[in-house]
User: Fold this.
Amino acid sequence: MTRRFTALAALAVVCAAVEVVAGRGMSPGVVWDVLNGGGDATERHILFQLRLPRLLVALGAGACLAVAGLVLQSALRNPLAGPEVTGVTPGAVLGAVTATALGLAGWDSPLAVVLAACAGGCAGAALLWLLAGRGRGDPAQTAVHGVLVSAVLGGLTAMVLLVEPGELGSVVQWLVGTTEGRVWEHWHLLWPWALVWGVAAWLLAGPLTLLRCGDDIALAAGLSARRARTLALTCAVALTAGAVAAVGALGFIGLLVPHLAVAVFGADLRRSLPGAALTGAVVVCGADAAAQLSSRLLATALDSGRLTLPVGALTACLGAALLLLVVRRTPSRTF
Assistant:
């Protein structure tokens, strides 16, 4: 197990190094020169004020989404439960877009955007809580109501776009998910939130393990299944809200990465939760590096001076393809 964590940490370092040198404007040699104390003021600004915070935000958001997904899948006993099932992802997007449309926030005010997204995410979770009613402890009912809440919030986001068509760029960035333009303020807002709720998720490893075995076994062990599930959902809501507030809605990270983490680190949540955090960080960081490299190649091929592929578009495409492959290879499995 130690070797697996070490290998994954080494892979994270490799992905981080690739992402630092993958962007436009600086060659690997220039990056190395700046890290050794050289380079001009512009090159130092690009590396230390743009690329490093973008790298850290990608790592933190990936860790948050992966842990949130594993917590949800364990609490709801549903292998296809992702952060979207709580209504937090579309709620956070709606909050950020609405605040931007009203002129209360913008990409140049990270704190206001984060606060608006967190407020929207909490509102989405509260709406799910109200709709679920007495069936909050039922995993199937919670999942169904979560899908309905997500659909409603997505429709409200579309209505905001109709009212303020000038916010199309903001809507697309939040719906797809991107790490572009992230600065140190985003990171300073994300890492304390991720640390607190990540530790809370790890402390819930024991109750979550019992919930995975079923409510009857949890009750026989003296655990209040409803209370434990409520705490787990609260933790997943908070982690998802923080990630979405920082980078938008990255598709399939919270759905597929937990399965990979369990396959690598086993079913013991005391190991698989930290493993999911590290795996999610690696996946998002690697996807962001691949998106930057793809943007450069597409810009060259299409002779376009400015072409950016959002990391969320890449994770959505690859995640959908991977999910389809898994379902087709295991047709007899009940999801």
User: Anything to note?
Assistant: The radius of gyration is 20 Å. Residues 41-76 form the longest helix (36 residues).
